[in-house]
Amino acid sequence: MDKQKKGLFIYRKNKSMKLTHDERIAQMTFASVYPHYVVKVEKKGRTKDELNQVITWLTGFNKARIEALMEEKLSFQDFFNQAQLHPNASQIKGLICGYRIEEIENTLTQKVRYLDKLVDELAKGRAMDKILRS
């Protein structure tokens, strides 16, 4: 198998080799997913500002930093490497995308699923104080 380790995940030289679920998540860019988050929450009557508030709570990034990181087209791995995860993030529990968040072993995948869960709760109309675990 022709692999070269770089960072915390594997870049594959042979494109025909399939990436694992965790590798695919690590390589996805935050900028490619953010517009989907916006559509999801706005379709359900929530705002982009509320979405940014949720992202800020989880990562510590302010609105300007979120926009700058999107322009940089950072992978989720680099995005979360720069984030200061909220101390209450571990309180985010439940199922998302068929996975129980608290049982996900890969730390990066768990962080991405934290974000997915918060966006999902926002779109479902949950109160902001509940979403932010305050």
Number of domains: 1
Low-confidence stretches: 1-14
Class from secondary-structure proportions? mainly alpha
Instruction: Kindly provide the radius of gyration, computed on alpha-carbon positions and rounded to a whole number of angstroms.
Output: 15 Å
Report on the biggest sheet.
2 strands, antiparallel
Shape: globular
The helix content, as a percent range, equals 40-55%
How many DSSP-defined strands?
A: 4
What is the strand arrangement across the widest sheet?
1-2
Task: Look at the structure and give the mean pLDDT.
Answer: 88
- The CATH first-level class comes to Mainly Alpha
Q: What is the CATH topology classification name?
A: Helicase, Ruva Protein, domain 3
Query: β content, as a range?
Result: 5-15%
How far apart are the first and last residues' alpha carbons, in Å?
A: 48 Å
CATH homologous superfamily name? Answer: uncharacterized protein sp1917 domain
Order of secondary-structure elements: EEHHHHHEEHH
Number of helices: 7
Looking at the overall shape, the CATH architecture is Orthogonal Bundle
